Amino acid sequence: xxxxxxxxxxxxxxxxxxxxxxxxxxxxxxxxxxxxxxxxxxxxxxxxxxxxxxxxxxxxxxxxxxxxxxxxxxxxxxxxxxxxxxxxxxxxxxxxxxxxxxxxxxxxxxxxxxxxxxxxxxxxxxxxxxxxxxxxxxxxxxxxxxxxxxxxxxxxxxxxxxxxxxxxxxxxxxxxxxxxxxxxxxxxxxxxxxxxxxxxxxxxxxxxx
Length: 209
Hints:
This protein is α/β, with parallel strands linked by helices and 209 residues long. It contains eight helices and eight strands; from the N terminus they run βαβαβαβαβαβαβαβα.
């Protein structure tokens, strides 16, 4: 699969590393530092190249949006039309200082992204924190973390779910994109636990019976 990545920070590069190891072709884009973008691609290897956001969209079967919430409008403008493309967002509506959320419960980052990218097949999912992705194992002892994903296009959701499984998580369909209004605050709670209360590496586990 060809994956265009808009945003080459810790999450974009961390997920890209796994996908390149599975044989997917990557194109990284959108960085204030072109040299950093090139270094990320070179560190991943021959399966990764760099380009503009518009080039990454044209290249890709799936586009990963991995930028700060404050940058979504600029990043999507640079990307151009995403009509018909699977747009996999791992963007949460965090304030720049991570003290709270810019939107929540009445809308979500995912829904705002869908408004800015008309015709895109938006799927939202939060995999694992970057520190967990960079660890030798993505499991918590013998437990596999749960990742919730939302979206309104079933085929697009299945495509994203297959990519998520490659990073060794349990994937759970959390319903339509509107349900991101509830998933995003839950992820914000994890951020508070991990970084404010210093609990270290954390993740979700959904129990069912």
